[in-house]
Amino acid sequence: MSKPFNPEEAENFEDMEKQFAVKAVEHLMTYWSILEKVPGSQLRLTKIDDEIYEHFKSEFPEFDPAATIDEDAMKSKEGKEKWRNWINQYEKKINDFNFGTMLRANPKTEYEEHNTIFAMRMQFYAVEIARNRAGLNDWVYEQAQKKSASS
Predict the structure, then answer these.
(1) Which residues contact 19 (CB under 8 A, 6 or more apart)?
(2) What sign does the CA torsion over 9, 10, 14, 19 have?
(3) 129 φ/ψ angles, rounded to the nearest 5 degrees
(4) Which residue in 95, 126, 94, 101 sits closest to 30, CA to CA?
(5) pTM over 0.70
(6) Beta strands 116-120; 100-104: pairing state
(7) DSSP secondary structure code for residue 41 in this structure
(8) CB-side exposure of 48: number of CA atoms within 13 Å?
(9) 108: alpha, beta or left, given left = phi > 0 and alpha = psi -120 to 50?
(10) For every one of its 151 residues, what pLDDT tens digit does the chain have, with 9 covering 90 and above?
């Protein structure tokens, strides 16, 4: 009989980490490609965007979608616990709700080394839905349209 799984003692399997990284990068590239084709303010990321948005605003009223995310606060012991409790409520509602992905710390710039945070899928949805509702990602579409028109 095997003993219970202890994540603190789990080994890192290089191939699994590589597969995970590939999936996370595919997700960010897909999202960016969509933002280039559709203004974020017109985009729906899930079937329950309204519910996610209202729930996020009520649980994280201090969150400013235009501000740079404080990764240290997000990943502090208290931050992790608050987020974990919020995220776990979506276990039966959102596929891959707790799958890792990449999140821009600041909505004013693209994904780049100093602006990218590893986050859970629900954190991504919460933050990006809030940013899209505030029109903070529309610049990506506008920039892509200008570039396309000058080509």
Answers:
(1) none
(2) negative
(3) -65, -45
(4) 101
(5) yes
(6) antiparallel
(7) G
(8) 14
(9) alpha
(10) 455 656 556 566 666 667 777 888 899 999 999 999 999 999 999 999 999 999 999 999 999 999 999 999 999 999 999 999 999 999 999 998 998 899 999 999 999 999 999 999 999 999 999 999 999 999 999 999 999 898 7
Q: Are 53 and 129 in contact (CB under 8 A)?
A: yes
Give CA–CA dist 5/23, Å, rounded.
24
Q: What phi-psi label fits residue 104: left (phi over 0), alpha (psi between -120 and 50 degrees) or beta?
A: beta
Question: What are all long-range contacts of 110-119, with beta carbons under 8 Å and residues at least 24 apart?
Answer: 110/32, 110/140, 111/28, 111/32, 116/28, 117/69, 117/71, 117/74, 118/24, 119/74
Q: Which residue has the tokens 């017109």?
A: 42
First to last CA, the chain: 64
**pLDDT for position 17:** 67
User: Could you tell me where the beta strands, DSSP code E, fall in the chain?
Assistant: 100-104, 116-120
The pair of three-digit structure tokens given for residue 73, joined into one six-digit string: 């606060």
